[in-house]
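Suppose you are handed only these lines of text.
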Amino acid sequence: MSEQPQQIELPPIKFFADGSDDDTKKANLDAVLPSPGFPDTALLIADSLSKRADLIVLDYSAQVVNVRLQIDGLWHELPQKDRTSGDYMLASMKKLANLNYMERRNRQEGEFAAEFLNKKTTFDIVSQGVTTGERVVIHVNRKKPSTETLSDLGMRQKMIDQLKVHLGKPKGLILVSTLPGDGLTTFYRGVLNGFDRFMRDYYSIEEVSRVEEEVVNINPVTFDESNGQTAQSVVPDLLLREPDVLVFPDIPSGAMLDYYCDIALNDEKLVLTRIPAKSSVEAILRVMALKPTVSKFAEALQCVTYQRTIRKVCDACRQPFVPPPQLLQQLGLPPGRVQTLYNHTQPPPPEMSVDEKGNPVEVFVCPKCSGVGFRERTGIFELLNVTDAFRKAMLQSSDLQVLHNLAVSEGHLTLREEGVVHVAKGTTTVQELQRVLQK
Ligand SMILES: [Zn+2]
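From them, the structure of the protein bound to zinc ion can be written out as follows.
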């Protein structure tokens, strides 16, 4: 077992250990600071903070430890660690979290905190033995900037104005969609914030065990599935209060969608609901796959608003280049419109950022993105306005391409076209747009 090299300069990070009382906390921290695993712990935790990671995953196998960070929704591999230094590091982190560092098999959960660059952050750590060794998942409870409005999320003002026309309608159905796990809740909240909530009465009908985070001026009304209730158990009473808008966070079945449509068409309310999908047109097909009465759905549907998140290239280290004419043509940009596009700065390969002993060596790292090349995300959006011609087509076809082509012929801008706007503005790169569109 080798000693930790002494020459490594540790980042200015201060740890706070957990414990049942103050004495235990102090004893845990005092044990960790001189321990052989502390330098690697300090480096990893500081790295995760400066790169704005949301998750750290350590996979222990017989010989090595694989370390990954999740940053802006994407996994980044860090240099592998040998098992010995990985074990020391994990022992330090478990001690910080007041866990038993000898325990490598049973699941353990704990937390610790660290202060770095004047910001204190808590870390939730879960360790669990697996057949190959041990897996450790650390959630970085980063304080994120609050994205509350559609404009915060990156929607263009013109599209916001168009969406608000739909949100201001007296009746009909509005569908909100993203990829699964691609910020549906945040986008949905952004759309709800797009309502003129001070002029009308809004209710969100939610199952009691899946209550949504509250949005100002939208009144939650709950039903209890364990008591055999559905949304239909509470909506009739609610309708007596003459609400303007009813919001349903999901569509449990085609029959329930029929019910939402009845509220939209017969009770003349505006209804908003959501479903995960790959595009706005696909969202319609996902709903149709639940076998609702398509004629009702088509009649009620006013628009689909769709978001996909895309990483923003770091503006401190992005690399400008003059786009060749073929590339502009592929992107559908007229010649002369855009003089410069950008690539992200590639991080050095892991073997270049460590010496032959596996110790970190000095390489230039952009201070703004910590060498990731991208920083934060924005959204690319679709707004599908459902026209009478589109409604007619919904009754005749459930083919994605047919409905997509019709929408495009009516002037619908696709995710790709919306994404190219971000590329042309230098907000993101061609490769990042391709990556995001392939999802
Ligand atoms: Zn940068």
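What can we learn from it? The CA atoms of residues 34 and 92 lie 10 Å apart. Residues 150-311+377-437 form a domain with the Rossmann fold fold (CATH 3.40.50.300).
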